[in-house]
Structure formats: structure tokens, C-alpha cells
């Protein structure tokens, strides 16, 4: 146990990398999820199909495969494009960017399902009423759709977030110095990998436990106007 | 003359002239990818099978709130559902070697020093934890009337479980289980991080060997997509067969309705 406290600095640094990776991916996934949800609910058939293909694709490809494709393939693709167009010589995709892009892209698809269901749960009459009083589409979204959507989406959103936090561990495979990577190298140099992996598990459980607590608060705020069944 | 060229020659000229992806290399290494797919499927379904068998009694103990047993199982599922699978695999494969007692035990040589066994153990415990929790939900959702009816027929608790509670719980859990199967397949890529040659492992090997960026990953991706589509198809068939009574009834054709009236 003592050895883990000796290495606490490196574990804390890794935890911060993991958390910032997760939060940034979450933001990207919310944006993509909203776009995807509205695409799926669009009146245009082509847009709807594009939204569904997005979800289908993400559901069928494992996250690590996509992450490696973006990290190794994206690098080459970017330099090939740069070489052809002459716009840039060399752009490096670092592991952090590759991680955020991959996780954001993957969880954007899951979020789009979540948001789609939540938007569908809002009674159609409310949107019509908002239009009738002359609200612009942006206003309708901000004042009518969003506050209720959050409440309907929250349980599934929480679940997506917890899965996302766990998925960040994969970024250590492409070499980002996150919690798992740091703990692994510390454990290897001290020959105490078991203790360090247990420590990593405890840290993940703390992160998920805390986010559960916070999201329950958010739920209470957005459900203020609704009586508990 | 064009039509007389074999498929392979066509592939060769296409790869050399027009495509950024070397299809010939992929074609030449296809047997390896099929071997990799076999490893992936083996890991996935073995873990699902054993994990499912473990999950049934655990879910029953959880659903009926057996004292001591149920909280203990909850701790197990909480830890395994709340931590990354990658860390669990590392814990078994790299972690157990920390203890000399483990290294000297009879389990070390054939099992715990072997990546395949460590991966199978981690995957099984992981999928068993998830399956336990949603199976518990399905068992708890059993309508009380069904249990009462079974009691009224004089069924023993064991018969009740076997003939009434479990079959219906399995049906209710089927949609969630199809997700679990796909997630286990997705999770199986982690095997490649501990040197196993599963689909992604073969892809990484190919890219590393020929210094490529796309080919190995893209081929692995196509294989995974094919497997997922197959699984989805099988589950859709199963849902049609076992959950047919829950499907929304289709409106009868206008013509037939008139005849009925």
C-alpha cells in the first residue's frame, strides 16, 4: 500500500488527464448527439438515413479499432492530404486529440439515440403552441424543448457518461499518459501491478460514484416541476 | 481480353494504380484474418456462455434478496460493472504475478501465466456481472399473478422457477442481452493488448509488419461489422420467435376487415 502513496502524484496527474479527456469527449458527443438526433427526426429522408447509418456504424465497430484507425490512419491521411494540396507539411494527431475525437464520435451516436427518445417524449402540442405564439426555432429549442429534453434524457445520459468514463481507459493502449498508463508504468517499475490496478479500479469507482451524485442533483433540478410518481 | 483477367490480377492492377489501399496484401492475408475472427468469436462466446451460466444463480439470489449473499454479489457486480474491462484484464494478466504464492501455485503454469486464460477469466467475470444485474431486473419484473397461479397449481419453488419465472425472465431480458452480446464482442478487442492474435491483433500485426496505416484496421473493422450484423440478425429472429406475443399487432388489410365484419 505504501508504494501507492509514494506514487500518488503520478496517479493524480493521470486521473486529471482521464477526467479532462472524458469531459471533452462528452462535450463533443453532446454536440454530435444533438445533430444526430435532429437528423434522425428530420423530415428529409436522406438526412434521416444518414443519422441512422451513423448509429449503425458506431454500434458495429469496436471502439479500440476506431481509435487506432483515427490515430494511425488519420495521421497518414492528413499528411497525404497535405502532400497533395501543399497546404501543410506535417500535422501530428496526438493521442489526446485522437481519444477525444474517437470517444466523442462513438458516444455521439449513443447520445443521438438518447436525445431522439427524449425529444419524442415531449408532447407535440407544446411545440405547436410555441409556434402559435410566434417563437423562432431557436427559441423553441431553448425555452420549450431543451429543459424537458434534459429531464427525459437524463437516465440514459447518465448511463452513457458512465460507459464513456470507462472507455477512456482504452486511450492508454495508443499511449496517452492517462490514469491506466501511469499506473501501469508505476506498477511495472515497482513490480506491484496488482496493487496499482486495484488502485485504478478504486479511482474509477470514485469517479463514477461522484458523477452519479452530481447527476442526481441535476435530475432534481430539472424535475422540480414534476411530481414524483 | 479484359474479361480474361483473373480477379487477383484485377486486384493487383487496381491496388497499384488507383487505390491508396493495398488490396492485394489484404487478400493475401485473409486466412490470418479468418483465424483472428475465430479467436475473437471463441473468446466472445465462451465468455458469454460461462458468464451466462454463472449469472443465472447470482441473479436469482439477488432478485430474492438472500441475506449476505445478495449484498456480496452486489459488491462483485458493482466493482466489475464500474471499472474498465481493460483494467480487469491487466489485473489478471499482469497483476497476479505480483504474488509469489500465485506464481508457485499449480494454477500458474498452465493457466494464470497464459494470456488466453487470463482474458477468458476477465471477460467471463465481466459479462457475468452485467448479465446478473439485468437478469435480476427481469426476474423482479415477474407479474405476481404468474407466481400465485403456479403456487395454486401446487408447483414446488424449484418447478416454479424452472417453468414459470425463468423462461419469462429470459424473454424479458432478450433485448438487453443482445446489447450485452455486442458489447462483449466489442470488449474482446482488448485481448489484442495482451498479445493475443484476435481480429484486431491480426490487423495490428499486419500494419506493424508492412508499416501500413489503414489496411489492417480497415479489414478488422469490416470483419467486426459483419459479425455484428450477423448477431443482430440472429437476435431479431429470436425476438420474433420468443417475443412474438409482444409485437404491436399489424392492422389488418382493409379488404379482410370488411370480410370479417
UniProtKB/TrEMBL annotation, chain A:
It comes from the Bacteria. Pfam families: BPD_transp_1. Keywords: Cell inner membrane, Cell membrane, Membrane, Transmembrane, Transmembrane helix, Transport. The keyword Membrane applies. CDD domains: TM_PBP2. Residues 15-215 form the ABC transmembrane type-1 domain. It is found in: Cell inner membrane; Cell membrane. One of its GO terms (molecular function) is transmembrane transporter activity. Its main location: membrane. One of its GO terms (cellular component) is ATP-binding cassette (ABC) transporter complex. InterPro entries: AA_ABC_transptr_permease_3TM, ABC_transp_permease_HisMQ, MetI-like, MetI-like_sf. It is a multi-pass membrane protein. The chain crosses the membrane at residues 16-39, 51-73, 93-111, 161-181, 193-215. Belongs to the binding-protein-dependent transport system permease family. HisMQ subfamily. This is Histidine ABC transporter, permease protein HisQ. It comes from Litoreibacter arenae DSM 19593.
TrEMBL record, chain B:
One of its GO terms (cellular component) is ATP-binding cassette (ABC) transporter complex. This is Histidine ABC transporter, permease protein HisM. CDD domains: TM_PBP2. GO terms for biological process: amino acid transport. It is a multi-pass membrane protein. Residues 37-235 form the ABC transmembrane type-1 domain. Keywords: Cell inner membrane, Cell membrane, Membrane, Transmembrane, Transmembrane helix, Transport. It is found in: Cell inner membrane; Cell membrane. InterPro entries: AA_ABC_transptr_permease_3TM, ArtM/GltK/GlnP/TcyL/YhdX-like, MetI-like, MetI-like_sf. Pfam families: BPD_transp_1. The chain crosses the membrane at residues 37-61, 73-94, 114-132, 181-200, 212-235. One of its GO terms (molecular function) is transmembrane transporter activity. NCBIfam families: HEQRo_perm_3TM. PANTHER family: ARGININE ABC TRANSPORTER PERMEASE PROTEIN ARTM, MEMBRANE COMPONENT OF AMINO ACID ABC TRANSPORTER. It comes from the Bacteria. Belongs to the binding-protein-dependent transport system permease family. HisMQ subfamily.
Amino acid at each position: 500500500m505504501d508504494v501507492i502513496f509514494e506514487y500518488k502524484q503520478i496517479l493524480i496527474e493521470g486521473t486529471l488527464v482521464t477526467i479532462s479527456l472524458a469531459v471533452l469527449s462528452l462535450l463533443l458527443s453532446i454536440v454530435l448527439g444533438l445533430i444526430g438526433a435532429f437528423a434522425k427526426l428530420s423530415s428529409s429522408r436522406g438526412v434521416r438515413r444518414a443519422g441512422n447509418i451513423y448509429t449503425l456504424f458506431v454500434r458495429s465497430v469496436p471502439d479500440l479499432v476506431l481509435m487506432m484507425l483515427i490515430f494511425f490512419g488519420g495521421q497518414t491521411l492528413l499528411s497525404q492530404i497535405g502532400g497533395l494540396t501543399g497546404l501543410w507539411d506535417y500535422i501530428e494527431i496526438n493521442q489526446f486529440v485522437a481519444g477525444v475525437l474517437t470517444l466523442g464520435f462513438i458516444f455521439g451516436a449513443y447520445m443521438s439515440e438518447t436525445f431522439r427518445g427524449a425529444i419524442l417524449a415531449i408532447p407535440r402540442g407544446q411545440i405547436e403552441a410555441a409556434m402559435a405564439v410566434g417563437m423562432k426555432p431557436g427559441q423553441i429549442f431553448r425555452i420549450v424543448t431543451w429543459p424537458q429534453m434534459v429531464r427525459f434524457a437524463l437516465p440514459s445520459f447518465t448511463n452513457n457518461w458512465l460507459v464513456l468514463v470507462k472507455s477512456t481507459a482504452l486511450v492508454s493502449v495508443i499511449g496517452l499518459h492517462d490514469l491506466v498508463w501511469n499506473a501501469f508504468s508505476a506498477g511495472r517499475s515497482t513490480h506491484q501491478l496488482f496493487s496499482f490496478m486495484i488502485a485504478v479500479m478504486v479511482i474509477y469507482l470514485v469517479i463514477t460514484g461522484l458523477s452519479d451524485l452530481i447527476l442526481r442533483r441535476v435530475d432534481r433540478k430539472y424535475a422540480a416541476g414534476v411530481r414524483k410518481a | 481480353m479484359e474479361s480474361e483477367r483473373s480477379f487477383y490480377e484485377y486486384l493487383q492492377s487496381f491496388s497499384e494504380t488507383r487505390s491508396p489501399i493495398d488490396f492485394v496484401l489484404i487478400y493475401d492475408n485473409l486466412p490470418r484474418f479468418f483465424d483472428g475472427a475465430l479467436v475473437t468469436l471463441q473468446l466472445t462466446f465462451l465468455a458469454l456462455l460461462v458468464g451466462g451460466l454463472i449469472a443465472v444463480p447470482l441473479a436469482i439470489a439477488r432478485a430474492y434478496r438472500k441475506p449476505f449473499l445478495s449484498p456480496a454479489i452486489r459488491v462483485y457486480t458493482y466493482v466489475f460493472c464500474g471499472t474498465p474491462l481493460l483494467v480487469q484484464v491487466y489485473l489478471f494478466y499482469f497483476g497476479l504475478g505480483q504474488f509469489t504464492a500465485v506464481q508457485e501455485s499449480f494454477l500458474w503454469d498452465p493457466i494464470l501465466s497464459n494470456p488466453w486464460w487470463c482474458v477468458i477469466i476477465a471477460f467471463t467475470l465481466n459479462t457475468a456481472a452485467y448479465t446478473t444485474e439485468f437478469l435480476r431486473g427481469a426476474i423482479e419484473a415477474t407479474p405476481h399473478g404468474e407466481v400465485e397461479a403456479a403456487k395454486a397449481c401446487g408447483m414446488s419453488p424449484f418447478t416454479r422457477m424452472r417453468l414459470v419465472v425463468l423462461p419469462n425472465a429470459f424473454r424479458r431480458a432478450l433485448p438487453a442481452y443482445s446489447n450485452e452480446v455486442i458489447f462483449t464482442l466489442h470488449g474482446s478487442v482488448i485481448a489484442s493488448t495482451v498479445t493475443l492474435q484476435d481480429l484486431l491483433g491480426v490487423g495490428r500485426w499486419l500494419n506493424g509488419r508492412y508499416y501500413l496505416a489503414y489496411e489492417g484496421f480497415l479489414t478488422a473493422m469490416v470483419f467486426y461489422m459483419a459479425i455484428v450484423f450477423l448477431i443482430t440478425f440472429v437476435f431479431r429472429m429470436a425476438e420474433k420467435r420468443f417475443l412474438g406475443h409482444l409485437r404491436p399487432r399489424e392492422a389488418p388489410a382493409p379488404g379482410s376487415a370488411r370480410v370479417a365484419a
